[in-house]
């Protein structure tokens, strides 16, 4: 990978910033692009001093121009937390659709390979568990989450069409709930929400009865899976996630133990169309990439908790989404 030039959209976000670090570490030149709508430049400020890193503040839903050659494009720009995409639904639809179209066009013009960030949300509220890639999903197109889910489904469809009709080198990763340092403490996702509440001495808000499940993957494991997928020759969508499934109630109890808070779980209404279960079938990633997660939830949560705990007090206290 030495000397390869890689465009990473969403570079100032949680996953984009970790990917930027990884590709720099592999000897690549990284072009970060972000309009900072849900991201934060502090996630990549350590990269600005490097000669191998450059940054464009740009909305990728508008025409994307990058001077010079590109070997790889990783399209990670998109709001990713339900709170974010409910607040900015049109931008969410646009970045998954128009943004993806722009980046596919750029990949074609540059002769670059493109990997797009899809999501377990393409499975909607799944009727099979765990979810294999062959499952077509159960999505409500006009529900509140539809703006994200359908944009990502369109993203997969147009990416596959560019592969089929233009022979473009494409990769599609279906990412399951991922966590780690640089998540926004107030982004509304369950892990930062629970840890933030514990740090502020507030009760932990469990939505519904907490019987819904999720499977949480530590960010370093995810980045490794994405890196391997990019360099593989597999063009069909691939699940990357940690199959260690847990109910949200049990997860809340784990966070209470981890943080030592004296607070309890309280129940709040379950959001519309909240998926009841989610667990990746990673048979393909294991067989084709030789990949599986290595970091246990216990280890990953500890690192993530230390990160949140070390934030300035005014950020911990800042609850607004
Ligand atoms: P994030 O909000 O931390 O990062 C997204 C970044 O994209 C932000 O920096 C934001 O400013 C930027 N962005 C959004 N719209 C843009 C636009 N139009 N132009 C340029 N930049 C724009 O979220 P994340 O968790 O890092 O997610 C990154 C990607 O991974 C998203 O595509 C998301 O759908 C996907 N994903 C994430 C998860 C997860 O658990 N974190 C799960 C499934 C899929
Ligand atoms: N959740 C919760 N309390 C919160 C935030 C989320 O109980 O303060 C639940 C949410 O209803 C869902 C799960 O935690 O069942 C994961 O939510 P998140 O927003 O992290 O991601 P999702 O997987 O739903 O996209």
Automatic annotation (TrEMBL):
Known EC number(s)?
A: 4.1.1.35
The record's subcellular locations are: Golgi apparatus, Golgi stack membrane
Membrane topology classification: Single-pass type II membrane protein
Q: Mostly located where?
A: Golgi
| This protein's GO CC annotations | cytoplasm
Q: Print the keywords alphabetically.
A: Decarboxylase, Glycoprotein, Golgi apparatus, Lyase, Membrane, NAD, Signal-anchor, Transmembrane, Transmembrane helix
EC class of the enzyme, as a word: lyase
What sequence ranges are listed for the domain NAD(P)-binding?
A: 7-303
Q: Which InterPro entries match?
A: NAD(P)-bd_dom, NAD(P)-bd_dom_sf, UXS-like
Q: Which Pfam families match?
A: GDP_Man_Dehyd (PF16363)
The answer to keyword Membrane applying to this record is yes
Which prosthetic group or cofactor does it need? NAD(+)
GO terms (BP aspect): D-xylose metabolic process; UDP-D-xylose biosynthetic process
The pathway is: Nucleotide-sugar biosynthesis; UDP-alpha-D-xylose biosynthesis; UDP-alpha-D-xylose from UDP-alpha-D-glucuronate: step 1/1
What molecular function does GO assign, one term?
NAD+ binding
PANTHER family registered for this protein in UniProt: UDP-GLUCURONIC ACID DECARBOXYLASE 1, UDP-GLUCURONIC ACID DECARBOXYLASE-RELATED
Q: Which family does it belong to?
A: Belongs to the NAD(P)-dependent epimerase/dehydratase family. UDP-glucuronic acid decarboxylase subfamily.
Q: What is the protein named?
A: UDP-glucuronate decarboxylase
